[in-house]
Amino acid sequence: METHSNVLVILNQINRSTPSSNFNKERYEKQGFTVETYSIDFSGDIEVINILLENIKNRISNLEHIGQTLPKKICEPIRDEIIRLKESENKPYLTKEEYISACKNVDLKIEEEQEKALKYLKVIGDVIHFGEDYLVENIIVLNPIWLTQAIYAIITEETLDEFHQKGIFTRDWFYDFMLSTSESKTISYSKVESNHILNFMLKNNLDICYTSDNQTFIIPLCMPEKLPDHHFDEKGGLIVLFRYETVPPGLVSRLIVRMSEYVEDSLVAKNAVILRKGQARAKIDEYFKENDANKYLKIVVTGSNFDKYTFMNEIKSVLKEIKRQWFKNLVYSEEIPCVCCM
């Protein structure tokens, strides 16, 4: 979602003595969003629900591209050319340069008209294109199966499931997998095509896969929900809580990737991990406080005083770097809890 978007937040918080959401309307408005909150009891009068549905319909009808007219001479020729490239030449995708060349082939030479035609092709579903994302802005997908079959094959691959690699793979493994074919993946992908697929998986808002070094990757969907059976004695440990309004998808996954060399005996889960560095051990997991809508990451590090303080500082430094790089607007606070409250 882009800033300057209109956002409707639906609150179904009824008959509660404590808040179930800590949504901060003012914070999003400062970032450029236009936010309207709408409180509703879904167990109540159907008329209230109808009013909400009408509100949503009105918002959709007022979207920028609804009712927009485009000259037939711009849209029809390039659409016919795109269909020809897809069906006659079996092109699964075009680079932006190839798209411009296709436009010129049908006498569509003005850049502004080329962009309008591309938006039209997106709206009617003939192509997939994310022009706002630098990772994939150069690729215009003509055949969605080329993209979805590859992604589905990856996230359902047995060697990546929670009982084996737990969603962690390397770039070299990915190239080999994409080149091979199977019953579920009938298409063989070149190295160039594999890089395009990987970039789609890494795309923000799709949140399929994450990396920190561009060599090791992790797919949260393939990870176990909870840590495997283990023993971790927190007694004498150094404890820090990171408090967030919400923990964004990919925060913990990126931390696991960044610190993968320290993962102890494959003890990883979607939002938790146990690390070992020398004599220091660390457990990072989600933490919840009663009657508190905030989200917490709890970090516990055990070992000698020097080892645990050194390792704790390294983990905190990685978390802060991930925030700086990927979640610039994420607000958090760092807390040292009272031991008697844990």
* Tally of strands: 13
Low-pLDDT segments: none
**Broad structural category:** alpha+beta
Q: What's the number of helices?
A: 10
Q: Give the helix level as a range of percent.
A: 25-40%
In percent, how much strand structure appears in the residues? Answer: 15-25%
* CATH class category of the largest domain: Alpha Beta
Question: In words, what does this structure look like?
Answer:
This protein is of the alpha+beta class. It folds into four domains: 6-61, no CATH class; 72-141, Arc Repressor Mutant, subunit A; 144-222, Arc Repressor Mutant, subunit A (Orthogonal Bundle); 238-341, TATA-Binding Protein (2-Layer Sandwich), CATH 3.30.310. 36% of the residues lie in helices and 19% in strands. It has a six-stranded antiparallel β-sheet with strand order 9-10-11-12-8-13. A three-stranded antiparallel β-sheet has the order 5-7-6. Strands 1-2 form a two-stranded parallel sheet. α9 packs across α10. The radius of gyration is 24 Å and the shape is globular.
Mind sketching the topology for me?
Elements: E1 6-11, H1 25-30, E2 34-39, H2 46-61, H3 72-87, E3 93-95, H4 96-105, H5 111-123, E4 139-141, H6 144-155, E5 168-170, H7 171-179, H8 191-202, E6 210-211, E7 216-218, E8 238-244, H9 251-258, E9 263-269, E10 272-277, E11 280-287, E12 295-302, H10 305-326, E13 332-335
Parallel strand pairs: 1-2
Antiparallel strand pairs: 3-4, 5-7, 6-7, 8-12, 8-13, 9-10, 10-11, 11-12
Helix pairs in contact: 3-5, 9-10
